[in-house]
Write a structure and sequence with these properties.
2 domains; about 0% strand; mainly alpha; Arc Repressor Mutant, subunit A; globular
């Protein structure tokens, strides 16, 4: 481990010691359970440890609050996706349900796709999902969205580029 990495870990350890209790209490007021607050605060510090950039914090609580707000938003987004997925499979006979592990993988995949499509207009997202998940042809998508086939092609290119660049940046 380099001197820089040791110093950075000490900085994060100090940040944890000084602010973890405060962050946990803040999170506890924003999410539904103590366990979720603990998971989110843990994930924030793990993310900080994985960073390659040096932390230069003048206002550590403001920095942690920003990270926590993003994490809480992601938490609620994931809860929404999970609830929608469970509602969608509720019509399927229980013996045909995916295992809990498969369900977790499916939910994580949906969340990842949702994150990659973040910021795109709704019709662009719909066109992409119709093509990728429902296997619809461009003509079918155009009819469903009441747009031209050339617009669907543009939508699909835009969504594919968004996914590609989201993956390559990570």
């Amino acid at each position: 481990m380099s001197v820089y990495q040791e110093s950075e870990q000490q900085t994060i350890a100090s940040l944890y010691r000084q602010h973890h209790s405060w962050l946990f209490r803040w999170l506890r007021g924003k999410v539904e359970s103590t366990e979720s607050a603990a998971d989110i605060s843990h994930d924030i510090f793990v993310t900080l440890l994985a960073r390659e950039e040096q932390l230069l914090l003048e206002e550590p609580r403001a920095f942690l609050t920003t990270l926590a707000k993003r994490s809480v938003a992601n938490h609620w987004r994931r809860q929404y996706v999970e609830k929608a997925y469970l509602e969608a499979i509720s019509d399927i006979p229980e013996d045909l349900h995916p295992s809990e592990e498969e369900q977790a993988i499916i939910i994580e995949s949906i969340v990842a796709i949702n994150q990659r499509l973040q910021g795109l207009p709704l019709d662009v997202k719909r066109a992409f999902l119709y093509a990728q998940l429902d296997g619809m042809k461009q003509q079918e998508i155009a009819e469903k969205l009441s747009v031209s086939v050339s617009t669907v092609k543009r939508y699909l290119s835009r969504a594919a580029a968004q996914c590609y660049f989201a993956i390559s940046v990570k």
